[in-house]
Amino acid sequence: MPQFDQNEEKAFIIEKIKERPVNKKKLAQRTLLTAAMAVMFGLIACLTFLLLEPIISKVLYPQEQPQIVVFPEDQDEMAPEDMLSDSKDEQNEDSLLSDGEELPGELAENIFSMDSYQQMYASMSEYVEELRRCMVSVTGLHSDVDWFNEVQTSKYQTYGVIIANNSVELLVLTKYEPLEEADRISLTFFNEEQRTAQLKSYDKVSGLAIVGVNLEDMKADGSDLMEQISIARLGVSSTKSFVGSPVVALGTSSGLGDSVHYGMITAQHTQQTLADRAYSFWITNITGNDSSDGMLFNLRGQLIGIITNNISGSDYENMITVYGISELKKTIEKLSNQEPIAYLGVHTKNVSKEAHEEMDVPYGAFIKRVEMSSPAMVEGMQIGDIITSIDGDKIDDYSDYSSKLLRLAPNQTVEIIIMRQSQSGYKEIKFNITLTEVP
After folding, report:
1. 60 within domain boundaries
2. Structural domain that includes position 360
3. DSSP H or E stretch at residue 250
4. Do 229 and 189 touch, CB atoms closer than 8 A?
5. Which of the listed residues 228, 250, 271 is the one where a domain comes to its end?
6. What angle do CA 48, 52, 55 make, to 5 degrees?
7. What is the Cα gyration radius of the chain?
8. Does the pTM of the predicted model rise above 0.85?
């Protein structure tokens, strides 16, 4: 039997384990695959969260939707002369004086006494204090960095008026231009309390804007500001009795902040037409200047005009002029509800009675200018065309045209009928035009 020594036995038992070589290529592939799966999982998770988060939030934290803001249509109002006539009739019926009999001297002397004069202005002062509750000073703040890397802040101030509470925000009507480049908007109310507002919507054609303050912010620090302010009511600026009616101008009517002026409407300027709009300009006997700004109220607590500097004339260059509120109501309503305004892109004017009778020009909205690259120009509408119908609604003048367009929406395709002059007279042409949004 063979003999093994101890050392040989140990050598026989020892097994040398050799490490398996690393396959670097497979390791890299597995690493990349793992990383790709992780990225894919992350993308799917993010996408799922983005899609489901609004739904889950609405279920768990339902938010109150803003109420639709609607302003009532203009109603015919009794003219002051009619009221005066009725009053005279009643006085004549109820008078205890016989014909030719005079009032007692004591009564006659007290009708227009100094006390009456003071009481009248005291009443007006109280009335103005109530109007101030719906007025707001609007400040647009814009910050920029100069060449020395220092922050420069610019302030642009205008005035606004509270027009609605949509159950989510308090809405303020104001001018757009001072806020166009604003980084932050601040509102100062009648009692000097301030709140930060957000630009909600604007219209470059009319130059108007709506800014909003969250109702929760109005109650900040336990303030009862909502109980102190008031919401303005929109009046009427299209009645025959508008000229001669007394008015109150609030804002910077004299160029100085928070000023008050009493006066009256003295005349109506020729209506000015902008792109797709027609506005009435009214002249007052209140002295102003280039920096005049603010709102015009009647003696019923109603907003009837917005002070503007877009009109000038040798006879009234120092007189305050205003946009009449009636033609602006639909625009303000759309802005309040953040509804986009339809755009065709034509400036129109009325066809005069003389042109209609003597030259057989059909009634309608006469196009005197077409905006470049507008839907009207793209489809081939021209200067001299007369719009007579939009989607079956008859158009007799530019007010009809403006009102109809404000009831339409961008991306809506409408049938527009125009009359175009030819050698044999006016002929009818139909266009199917897709409206766009005001640029």
Report:
1. no
2. 342-437
3. strand 246-252
4. yes
5. 228
6. 175
7. 36
8. no
